[in-house]
Design goal:
Radius of gyration: 13 Å
Number of strands: 0
Structural class: mainly alpha
Largest sheet: none
Strand content: under 5%
Order of helices and strands: HHHHHH
Helix content: 55-70%
C-alpha cells in the first residue's frame, strides 16, 4: 500500500526499475496528496523533476499557489545544489494566481 510515509521510496523504486504504471500511479498519488506532503515536510525529499512535474499539474488538490511558491522557495534554499533548478521550478509557479498581501 502506498502511503505518505513510503510514497517517495516507492517512486524511487519505480523509477529505478522503469515500472511505468507504478510511476504514473505515484505521480497521481503525489498530486492528490501534495498538500499533506507539504504539511509533513516530506516534499523536501522530492527530486527537482518530481517537484517540477507536480508544480506543472492542473490537478493539484487543496493547494493554493502561494503555498506552492513558498514550498518551492524552501526546497530551493534547502541545499546549495538545488539552486541550479531555480528557473525550472519557478517557471512552473503561476504568479498571476498569487494575490498581493
Amino acid at each position: 500500500e502506498v502511503t505518505l510515509e513510503n510514497c517517495l521510496e516507492v517512486s524511487n523504486i519505480a523509477n529505478t526499475y522503469h515500472l511505468e504504471k507504478l510511476e504514473e500511479y505515484i505521480r497521481d498519488y503525489l498530486q492528490r496528496n501534495f498538500s499533506s506532503l507539504l504539511a509533513t515536510g516530506e516534499y523536501m525529499k522530492l527530486s527537482a523533476d518530481q517537484l517540477a512535474h507536480i508544480l506543472s499539474s492542473n490537478s493539484l488538490q487543496g493547494c493554493r499557489e502561494i503555498e506552492l511558491y513558498r514550498a518551492t522557495m524552501a526546497w530551493l534554499t534547502q541545499d546549495e545544489s538545488h539552486k541550479q533548478f531555480t528557473y525550472k521550478l519557478m517557471s512552473k509557479i503561476r504568479f498571476h494566481l498569487l494575490s498581493p498581501q
